[in-house]
Amino acid sequence: MQIRPPPEDFLLKETNPHLGGGKVTGDKHTSTYDLVEQMQYLYVRVVKAKDLPAKDVSGSCDPYVEVKLGNYKGTTRHFEKKSNPEWNQVFAFSKDRLQSSVLEVTVKDKDFVKDDFMGRVLFDLNEVPRRVPPDSPLAPQWYRLEDRKGDKVKGELMLAVWMGTQADEAFPEAWNSDAAGVSGTDGLANMRSKVYLSPKLWYLRVNVIEAQDLQPSDKGRFPEVFVKATLGNQGLRTRISQSRTINPLWNEDLMFVASEPFEEPLYVDRRLDHKPVNTRWYNLEKHVIVDGEQKKKETKFSSRIHMRICLEGGYHVLDESTHYSSDLRPTAKQLWKPSIGVLELGILNAQGLMPMKTKDGRGTTDAYCIAKYGQKWVRTRTIIDSFTPKWNEQYTWEVFDPCTVITIGVFDNCHLHGGDKAGGAKDSTIGKVRIRLSTLETDRVYTHSYPLLVLHPNGVKKMGEIHLAVRFNCSSLLNMMHMYSHPLLPKMHYIHPLTVSQLDSLRHQATQIVSMRLSRAEPPLRKEVVEYMLDVGSHKWSMRRSKANFFRIMGVLGGLIAVGKWFDQICHWKNPITTVLIHILFIILVMYPELILPTIFLYLFLIGVWHYRWRPRHPPHMDTRLSHADSAHPDELDEEFDTFPTSRPSDIVRMRYDRLRSIAGRIQTVVGDLATQGERLQSLLSWRDPRATALFVIFCLVAAIVLYVTPFQVVALLTGFYILRHPRFRHRLPSVPLNFFRRLPARTDCML
Fold first, then answer.
1. Which among 35, 78, 226, 637 counts the fewest CB atoms within 10 Å?
2. What span, in angstroms and rounded, lies between the C-alpha atoms of 473 and 343?
3. What is the pLDDT of residues 240-258, one digit of tens each?
4. 164 membership: H or E segment, kind and range
5. DSSP class of residue 620?
6. Predicted pLDDT at 4
7. pLDDT tens digits, residue range 519-537?
8. d(C-alpha 400, C-alpha 387), whole Å
9. CA distance 131 to 478
10. Are 247 and 209 contacting, i.e. CB atoms less than 8 angstroms apart?
11. DSSP character at residue 219
12. Whole-number Å distance between alpha carbons of 680 and 666
């Protein structure tokens, strides 16, 4: 089956940005900040002041510094009653927005009515020096304050002023002119770029073996005993023991997710392989409530429970969808293989973003990016009130497996103007991009514009475009090729595999732990952002996804169907010349069977070489046609975005239930037909139909004798010629073997 290409506006586009200031050697850039466009900034470091004039008889003042360039103005924090304050704050003004040729640095005295002017220092921007890392930082100097007339006054200010780029080490913590409209410490902290690390996750295995000498409260009946285990907000229980005694047996595993550093004391063994750890007997304690507090009850005799508890270091804790995993290493660092390369990502800019909220009666967007690969999350700074934000930030990750995916998401920051106090506002999602590393050529810079596509209840919508530069550097090609022979997950997943239900539950717990830990960072990486990046909820039912997966299967089977149609044309002599050539090839392969496998592999080799000319030159991207996002029915989309459990009216739920029953009925029929064919094969020798089995047994005896006395090549030639016979010798009725097979009994007669 062929799927129509998506609209032109939804396609990936190659770009040609001016990376690294244009310093290029061959196919590699020479600058250390070479995957982004250089952005020029004017930096002002306000270090400290001394000998400031006093405003009253106490000889003290409440000073702060105001750095002004055109209409942009930034201020330091103020100190109370301090004549020799130290600030050590950096201000960065974008060169693209310079509105004046003079920089004014003013020292003011904080006052409830009107701040008093204490002195200022003026700089001509044409005289400001330029600094490019790795040059050492510019040493600050003392400047004498002047009044508004230019006369020297009491007090000095230590400053450093220079022109630089976003590669400057002072840039991440500097006050940025893009943040001129944001006030408050929390607002400024929420818009800075940061790097986060996911907590180290472990699987905790609790093997409940048995208990002894239990003391049931009801002596008149057999106890129905089970064990309940709790870790944080995770609670699991065993099945009820089948041995209805005071010494019950279970031998059942309960699996939890624990995060390091552990919030609660956790003194258990750690194992790296499948060797069992030692078991221990634990005394069961009884607790009573005294004055509203839970206290341990002293007993002369206590029951015991036999358990084996350990932290599993040989598993990889899945917190992402297995289809989009960015890390496949086991938890224990001792089991890690050396890295095979480095992934470099340049987040350049975005174009045509949609307004995400309203401010002062007009639409606005405060966009920032999140990139996640492995345990490392990066967050760019927030660009205020712009539909074409420019970040130009570059990040690197170590790569341990090429068959992994990096995810880049774009969000609207809703916490710059008191969003936390306004009813718990959530950051809105603008779009997401995934890039699989195995689809990239090594040591090549990919610069593309990725459409940001988001599925809404009213259909798929393009929210803008994000421009990225990506490079995958490989340190050892041999090691990377060797990775393709390794299992995808650590070996414990295959030696002691977890069930599907266990994996689903553990992944849910892992995502909850990761989102909780990252939301407690400063600035927080919020829960809705983490869940969107980790694809939480992607396992829920969706009619659209079901259709898409069905057509994906049909696309995979399309090649086999095409081969079947081609072979049917050969058998029916649609093209006599081709059929004759197939006869000749068939005779050669039957006479020389040692050529069969070499011929097949040579054919596959030639196909691969032929397709190399049309190999993909761009990374894959989200396809709206493949996803059936542009053709989904509105009710199907509304069902996909429904809550769980549902919040829709009963008549809509009834209609969707009936639709689901109809689809499930068709699937049920197909599954039943497949079961029928399998049962007919089983009935060949079961004597369920004595006549059919007798005929088949006699046929097998005759076939064994004939095949024993007849050379295999003769049998193969006769079979092939019979299959390829001319249409003149064919009948429209089904063949005898097919008629016989369809008459065999199945167990459908036994179905209610």
1. 226
2. 6
3. 988 888 889 999 999 999 9
4. strand 152-165
5. -
6. 58
7. 998 888 999 999 999 988 7
8. 36
9. 41
10. no
11. T
12. 21
